[in-house]
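Marked as duplicate of an earlier ticket. Keeping the data here for the record.
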Amino acid sequence: MSDDKRPLAVFDLDGTLADTAHRQRFLEEEPRDWDGFFAAAPQDPPLARGVALALESAGECEVVYLTGRPERCREDTEAWLARQGLPRGRVWMRRDHDRRPACRTKLDVLRNLSRKREIRMLVDDDELVCDEAERAGFRVVRARWATASEDLKDAQEREGRT
């Protein structure tokens, strides 16, 4: 993490900053095509409301990113963030074979971060992540500006994939 002492604004990626609608088709078949799903991520269009909030937050906060994407997607993810003109910030990703639900993995990271820094807000589209973060005392902004398929919601929680 940087030596910036401002509070953290923590942003999710998929469904918050990145529009995944074009790649949700990879999750509709059995077995789900996870390689195809993540390979298509560099083509995600940005979600204007999420990007605007991240840029606005950078005035008072250090913007960082917390995603359920696996670590193997780091290079594509960081390149996508840069192409969108989003604030530079650390990216926390799921270990490649970590299949815990997103609400557990993300809450673990938030708790660790909050030991050293104030977390001003978490911005996420996953209702279960938001519920758990609120129960733990974090301020949450629910990103309701994109529509996730039921397959994606299932993948986030039951399969621990994103």
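See parent ticket for discussion. The chain has a mean pLDDT of 91.
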